[in-house]
Amino acid sequence: MRALIVEDSVLLRAGVARLLEDEGITVVGEAEDAQSFLRQWETHHPDISIVDVRMPPTHTDEGIRASVELRTHHPDAKILVLSQYVEERYAKELLADGRGGVGYLLKERIADVGEFIDAVQRVADGGTALDPEVVAQLFARRRNPIDDLTARESDVLSLMAQGFTNRAIADQLSVGNATVEKHTSSIFSKLGLEQTATDHRRVIAVLAWLEQA
Asked: Topology of domain 2-131, per CATH?
């Protein structure tokens, strides 16, 4: 796997690079601002870009804006955004196109190397990785049609939002894969998501849930 790191903090950038390289992931480039990020992506076409939300010059939302712009022109770009705090609107923006290959993690999650690398791998493979803290905050303020879900369906959607596969969800909840498939089907039905040839229903289900917050 080839990764591009976009972070203005030299120490954090070096730390992430070391973690990735220790796991056999090649760091093909490093950038400290949005424009450099976009230029380096065009040069290297990495398998995943790990991007800070806030970067120079204003340290507000340059990273997320650049990520959204990149995926507008290159839908196949895989982006894992890192943030210091839970900022729900950024998670919504990142998922707004309804495709996979995106993630949103708090920077503190990097300290759990296994969890961080797992998120990197899931996003690079075209899945999603949403920080559990974001999931918890949004679930606390959910509105219909999410309120129609049963407690177990809410558990399944919460894990789905974090990027777990059906098999991984089954392991987390200590149930069979068929049970998870049944709950997943019910979630899609209650959210009015019909199966199509192109829609990524798992991402759209999470997006529908996020928009209720």
From this structure: Rossmann fold (3.40.50)
